[in-house]
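not sure who needs this but someone in the group chat was asking about diguanylate cyclase from Rhodanobacter spathiphylli B39 so here u go. i didnt clean anything up, its just raw.
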Amino acid sequence: MGRSPEALLRRLSVRQRMTAIIALLLLPLAVLSAVSMMVLNEQEMAFRDSVEESVHGLLPLTTLEHYLQQALVDELLAESHDSVPDFAGLTQNVDNSFSSIQLGANAKDVPKQVIDDAQKAWVQARPSIRRLVEQVHARHVSGATASANTRIELERAIQDVSSARASLAGVLRARYEHAAAQRSRQLHWLMWSWLITLAVAAVLIVIFLRSLLRPLQALTQAARHIEEGQAGVRVDVDGRDELAVLAECFNRMTASWETTQGHLQTEAIKDPLTGVLNRRGILSQLDAELDLHRLRQQPLSVLAMDLDRFKFINDHYGHSTGDRALTWVATTMRGLLREHDHLGRHGGDEFIAVLPNTSHAAALEIAARIGQLVREGAAREAAYPEITIGVATAPDDGDLAASLLEAADARLYTQKKHRHAGSPASATSPPTQ
């Protein structure tokens, strides 16, 4: 079964992954940037060459064609008599115009000085115009035959030049269109190359970031669960990178913390000498069982037990013997109680037993068995104490811990008074109501 890219990346360290991702991103981008610059420079040079080729190829032909057409026009004008003005008619018309103006010189709309200045300018220009027109007439008469041949040659040359220009323009246009298509293909190739490269880079970045963020998120979530008090929190370790090492350390730290917490909790609620619950632990269990009693409406009984002759054992046999006596009594009682019953050391030689779902009569029977077994042990061993037991049951004696313990203590001390007074009452006798 193949491993995911993220799992494969987790086999590398974070530094190796960062180096690899930078190399995989920068190398293609650098190569693609260099290729793009080369292609764009090549296209710019090709465009410049195309423009220069068009200018140097077409401009001379176009200029030559223009000059030839201008020469043909000049030649046509030269051989056409219509292009030479009727000097006599024109000058006579101009003279008549000035004469008519002079006859009406009293008119107020045209100043006389303006008219005089215009007539003087005309008189000065008239001889020069006459000489130019006479020269044109002389050239027309002498070169009529030569002008015809020149016109034909000019027309043939214009046609040849125009054909050459059209052919060259077609070649240049085809080459330009081919170059433009090639440039378009190159630009499309560059565009797709950049898109593919950026897409691959985005995928690599996402995979790289997931390989970093998912372990961090798992560690964060595990830390929050521990903060909420959950037990058995562990982080899956997958990979060989620094985050995997951190997850392993986190798991070991969590296991050590849970072990330490368990020890602390045990020490907080258990009596280190006898191994049964201490005062805090037994009272806590009593409160919890009372909550269930109120919820299920089942009877709950409490045994308040006090050891007799314990001070005498401590004073005559020593405290170590007293400790062994306490341990023996606790072990004896624990062996007679049921699995779901709770036993705790309430004080120096005082014990409390919490009996869930137990009626008052059943609690009296259990108390009688405990008392009988302890008395038998005390009869065999002088360093073992006897025991007195008081019984209280909820809800008859109340449904609070204080009321139950008070009732059990009261019956316990009643038993002691009867014993000290020489009464035959025993721990198995029913408590006084």
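also The chain has eleven helices and four strands. if thats useful
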